[in-house]
């Protein structure tokens, strides 16, 4: 009987010790939860700092671009009011009609401007890493003018959304100016140094910040990536004949 009583007392004593340990661990866990909350708050602040640093880098890059563009405008190398090739005498005003004996001739192409723009993306194999570092989805070119409209090009290695629910790997963007009816053709430089047309010559209505290209499409939700240049993904493109010396060269011909 005495042995049984001793065993019961030992169990009760162990229960009390264990209960005290549970209470101690519970108190420690409260401290740990507080420490976790503080660590989470610090992590959130670090991400906010990362985001602000990213915006700072982006704005600094845009600032350098604006400074460069300002210089080009001051030098009359760019701008909405830049002189066109051939000076004022290249086009014959708004007059589209001509007369000849016994009839009249009308020209709908007299006020058409056509420009060619070549874009080289150097260090092409580093593009994904650079975009990841700068928190960007695509790379874009400098502006170029066609008539009184300003354009730029974008390349998106992921083939996902560019903006305004428009997806694609490559696009021509109308930035500003008189963007109305345009025709455009896209060419890619091969290892043979010859340019090959990608897709047909297309025509569309360009509005400011509208996006156009051979594989551009509209999607309101998640979708498969765009087809890519000649149906190649970015990784496949890197290994193709369209990339020479780690450089992709694109050319567009735009008529307004």
UniProtKB/TrEMBL annotation:
The protein's name in its UniProt record: BPM1 protein
Coiled-coil ranges from the UniProt annotation: 1-47
Gene3D superfamilies the record matches: Apoptosis, Tumor Necrosis Factor Receptor Associated Protein 2, Chain A (2.60.210.10)
Coiled coil found in the keyword field: yes
Cross-referenced InterPro entries: MATH/TRAF_dom, TRAF-like
Keywords: Coiled coil
Domain of life: Eukaryota
UniProt KW Coiled coil keyword: yes
Organism encoding this protein: Symbiodinium necroappetens
């Amino acid at each position: 009987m005495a042995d049984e009583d001793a065993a019961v007392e030992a169990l009760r004593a162990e229960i009390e010790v264990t209960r005290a340990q549970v209470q101690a661990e519970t108190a420690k866990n409260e401290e740990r939860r507080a420490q976790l909350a503080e660590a989470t708050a610090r992590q959130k602040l670090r991400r906010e700092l990362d985001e602000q640093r990213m915006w700072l880098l982006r704005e600094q890059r845009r600032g350098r671009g604006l400074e460069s563009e300002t210089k080009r405008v001051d030098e009359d190398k760019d701008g909405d009011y830049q002189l066109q090739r051939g000076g004022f005498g290249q086009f014959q005003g708004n007059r589209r009609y001509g007369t000849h004996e016994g009839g009249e001739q009308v020209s709908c192409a007299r006020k058409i401007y056509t420009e060619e723009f070549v874009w080289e993306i150097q260090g092409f194999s580093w593009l994904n890493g650079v975009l990841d570092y700068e928190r960007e989805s695509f790379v874009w070119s400098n502006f170029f003018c066609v008539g009184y409209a300003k354009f730029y090009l974008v390349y998106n290695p992921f083939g996902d959304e560019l903006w305004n629910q428009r997806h694609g790997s490559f696009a021509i963007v109308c930035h500003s100016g008189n963007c109305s009816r345009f025709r455009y053709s896209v060419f890619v430089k091969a290892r043979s140094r010859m340019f090959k047309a990608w897709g047909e010559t297309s025509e569309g209505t360009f509005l400011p910040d509208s996006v156009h290209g051979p594989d551009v499409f509209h999607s309101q939700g998640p979708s498969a990536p765009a087809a890519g240049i000649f149906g190649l993904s970015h990784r496949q493109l890197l290994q193709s004949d369209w990339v020479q010396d780690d450089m992709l060269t694109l050319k567009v011909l735009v008529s307004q």
